[in-house]
Predict the structure.
Amino acid sequence: MASADYCGEATPNTLSGTPITLYHAGNVPTQTSGSVPGYVAGGPVREDYFFESAWALVDPISGQPVTSATLPFRVRTQAVCLTKKRWSTLPYDGLCMNNHGDTLQPSRVPDPRNPDVQAKYCEEYTRDELIQRGAVLFSYSKFLDAALYRFKHVTTGQYLTTSRISIHSLESHLHATLYQPDASVFSDAANYLLIDGFRYSYEGPLFRPETPTHLFEGIAVSPLLRYRSTSSPTRFITLVGGSDAAVPDGYVLDEVEGYTSASQNPPSSAAALHLYGNDTGDYLTTGDEAHLPEGYEPLTVTPMGYLPQLEHYAAPRPY
C-alpha cells in the first residue's frame, strides 16, 4: 500500500515518498452531508488527503478476496477499486500487467473507464459494499502526482496540453468530456474536448508543482510551463523549462504545470515530449507522434522532457 501497488505485482503506481494515511472499516470517514450516508468520504481529510483506494487481502490461488477470519497459506494485498481521482492519473486500462495482452486472466483491477469491462469507481460503492468485497483498509493520499492530457478547442481547433483538469461523471466513460480543463483556471474550459476521446489523450504522469523539493534529490527534473497568448485567451503553448524550445513572441507565463523527468537515460517506455506547430501559428505539445494532427510539424529535434511511469522514480528518504 505504501507504494500504491494496486495490482499486487510488486510494482509502484505512485510517486515514492507520497504521504498517505490509512483508515480501517471502523474509522474510515463517511459522507455526512451532500450525499447519501454510507459512502466513504472523498476528502479532503486532515486538510489535504483524498480518498485513493480500498484494499483487500486476496488469495493468490483463487484470485478472490479473503472475507473470513481464516487466512489461506499465502495472501497478497490488492486494491478492490480506485477512486476517480486516482484513475485520472493512470493510462487507459491502468498498469496491471494482465490488463494488457493477457486475455486468459481476469483483470486484477479493471478500469471503469473501459466500457468493455464491468467495473466501478470506489465512490460508487457504499462503505458496507466495499467491506463485503473484502476491503479491510482505506487509503488517502496527498496526490503529489498528476497526469498530463491533450485537449482540443471545439471552435478554434487549437490545442491545450495541461494537467489542470476537472473530473466528470458520465455514463459513457470514454466520452470526450470525461476530463476537461479546470474551469477555475481556464475561462473557456467547457469548449475543450479530449483529443480522440480518453484513450489517446493521456500523455503520462508528472510531479505536481507543490511536490516537496527534497523528493527530487538524485532525480533530474525540469519544470513544465504553460504560456498564454496575450492576444487570444484560447491559444496556449506548453514547454519544458531549460529545453531548446523558445517562448514565442506574444506569450506570457500562465502557470507551472508540474515537473517532468530530465533524465539523460529515460526508460524506453517513457513518453518523449516534443513541440509541434502549424502554418497558422498554433502549437501542440505531445509525446504521441502516432496521433499527430494533420498540418503539424516538429519544432524540436530533441525531446523537451520525458514522462516515465512513476515506478521509475525513487525518493531518497520519506516525506
Remarks:
- The first strand starts at residue 20 and ends at 24.
